[in-house]
Design a protein that fits this description.
By secondary structure, the protein is an alpha/beta fold. The chain has helices spanning 48-59, 73-76, 85-93, 107-116, 133-136, 140-152, 169-177, 188-198, 208-219, 240-245, 263-272, 286-291, 298-307, 320-329, 353-364, 376-390, and strands at 63-68, 81-83, 100-104, 122-124, 159-164, 181-183, 201-205, 226-229, 248-251, 277-280, 294-295, 313-317, 334-337, 371-372. The protein contains 16 helices and 14 strands.
Length: 393
């Protein structure tokens, strides 16, 4: 396994973005960026691991800890289950005896867990500043304005919204209210197939790349039938004719991590490592996905490495914490990071061991911090959209 900076293994050269990874700086693009209340334990405290174990043992079955794949190892160590955002929300719903759900992820994930769990359960996010810049790229007001633009163009009645799981509860509610469904990176094709059975067009929110890659590469929709709606331009930067001619109306949003990978990254790693298999997430740009050997969700990436032959070589285009974990889990394979610079999810990385200890000790002492609550009206329509996804074959 290559790990040196010189060889661009799983420890690439830090970029300015990497300075956020310790969770001690503010990210102006993070969702719900606020400070964590209370006094955090010092990161240098040698007793952090013991304190986390003690608090978790004291809480027993009252607490259930969820750890997203992109979390730090020091946090994953205490997770009862790991997975992607939707799997974790469903796991939480399957544990009704747990009074507290501690979600080590980001804000929209905790919202989804609150929507899917019972009223007696409380969802806790260890750091309220753990957000998602992609989710922030589509606000309720912007999407409502977009729908007005579609109505004025005469296409709203034949357009079905499909929203990626990586969206706020407000956007999920908009989707449910307008007869649409939610999708994950694993079932995006099936969600689009369902949507085109209901209408002629799809408004895909908020990740343009997942929408474009799924439509063009998996469903055969021509690229020129995909248009990009920019909420920062009048009428989304589109004419009524463009909207009428389009089948896929893609929201101008993206993942700040996966959007950093480039075609140069793919070409460079192929030159450097002959015989390498390039495996990327579908949130990557269209040209990157086109140039890769394999494309798939986080769960797909993990399963592909598990099934890979010993001695095989892999360049992975997804979040660095996961790539490092895969490299460590597969010492019989060469696993490298696709890019030369750090691609941590800066807001996901805000949840570190001090934040987790603070949250667990607060719960053990009878205080419930950082509760994530979705109001009843929003929950009603967001759950309708999620239920439609769950009903997909």
């Amino acid at each position: 396994m290559t790990t040196t900076t010189e060889n661009y293994g799983v420890d690439p050269t830090p970029s300015p973005l990497a300075l956020l990874l310790l969770g001690r700086e503010a990210d102006p693009n993070s969702e719900r960026g606020v400070d964590c209340p209370g006094d955090l334990p010092a990161a240098s405290d040698p007793d952090l691991v013991a304190r986390a174990r003690a608090a978790k043992e004291k809480l027993g079955d009252r607490v259930f800890i969820l750890g997203h794949h992109y979390q730090r190892d020091e946090v994953i160590e205490f997770a009862d289950v790991t997975g992607d955002s939707f799997k974790l929300a469903r796991d939480a719903a399957a544990r009704p005896e747990a009074e507290f759900i501690v979600f080590c992820g980001v804000h929209f994930m905790a919202e989804s867990a609150d929507i899917l769990t019972s009223e007696r359960q409380q969802v806790v996010l260890p750091d309220l500043a753990a957000g998602c810049s992609m989710a922030d790229m589509a606000t309720a007001e912007q999407v409502a304005e977009c729908w007005d633009v579609l109505s004025e163009a005469g296409v709203a009645d034949v357009t079905v919204p499909v929203s990626y799981m990586n969206s706020s509860a407000d956007i999920k509610a908009f989707t449910g209210k307008h007869g649409g469904t939610i999708c994950t990176s694993s079932n995006a094709k099936r969600a689009l197939e369902w949507a085109f059975e209901q209408g002629e067009k799809v408004l895909f929110l908020p990740d343009q790349h997942l929408g474009r890659n799924t439509a063009v590469l998996e469903m055969g929709i021509p690229l020129d039938e995909c248009v990009l709606y920019n909420p920062h331009k009048p009428n989304g930067g589109l004419t009524a004719e463009q909207l009428r001619n389009a089948r896929m109306i893609l929201w101008r949003g993206h993942c700040s991590v996966h959007g950093r990978f480039s075609l140069d990254s793919v070409n460079e790693v192929r030159e450097r490592i002959p015989g390498v298999t390039v495996l990327v997430h579908p949130e990557c740009k269209h040209e990157v996905v086109n140039a890769a050997d394999l494309v798939g969700s986080t769960e797909y990436i993990i399963k592909a490495l598990d099934a890979a032959e010993p001695g095989s070589k892999w360049a992975i285009g997804t979040e660095l914490n996961l790539v490092r974990r895969l490299a460590k889990a597969h010492p019989d394979k060469e696993v490298v990071f696709l890019d030369r610079t750090v691609c941590f999810c800066s807001t996901m990385n805000r949840i570190d061991l001090p934040h987790l200890v603070w949250a667990l000790e607060s719960l053990a002492e009878g205080r419930v911090p950082n509760v994530i609550t979705v109001d009843a009206e929003t929950e009603k329509y967001a759950k309708a959209a999620l239920d439609r996804m769950l009903a997909l074959p």
